Amino acid sequence: MRTAERNHRIIIGVDEAGRGPLAGPVVSGAVIINEKIDGVKDSKSLSQKQREALFDIIREESVAFGVGIASSSEIDEINILNAALLSMKRAIDALFRNLENKGMQVQGEDILVLVDGNRCIKGLKFQQETVVKGDSKVYEISAASIIAKVVRDRMMCVFDKRYPQYNFCKHKGYPTKEHKMLIAKFGPCPLHRKSFRGVGEQTFGW
Hints:
The chain is of the alpha/beta class. It has one domain: 2-Layer Sandwich (Nucleotidyltransferase, domain 5). It contains six helices and five strands, in the order ββαβααββααα.
């Protein structure tokens, strides 16, 4: 396996999507990618069509990638920050399972994990560095942000079929005016984060 140029180490970029929504999981992506792909940048600066197209290319061109998820109930139990970090850890674990399935082996000392934000991932056995606004500064984190965002958006559209009254596929669980009105009208569903302001005050009828 070829290593990234920075100090001849294997770089894993990690980012999450879904800290701010009132409903649904927080999802993280982890990516090892050697060849730069045109158009890859912070997922928030891309259109849905652009993200979807790049998602497929990243999956094909990456050395390995992984996705990690922390549910809304886990968010309520351990708070959104810890849940986001947990999803990042799970994404890295999934990435290494992907590597193993490909018959690839790497040494821990060869790996550097670059984490978007200012908090390190708990329980990670590899060296890691945090990068504030890393999704707009570090290529590997940008790629991970696209993986995380596309997977989460697709999940919310699946949930929309289960709970059509909330229009999850439209707002993806974020605190839009429409979403807040629907929570007030129907009450929260099991996907809603009970610990979040705007949800916990409502009456649960499920």
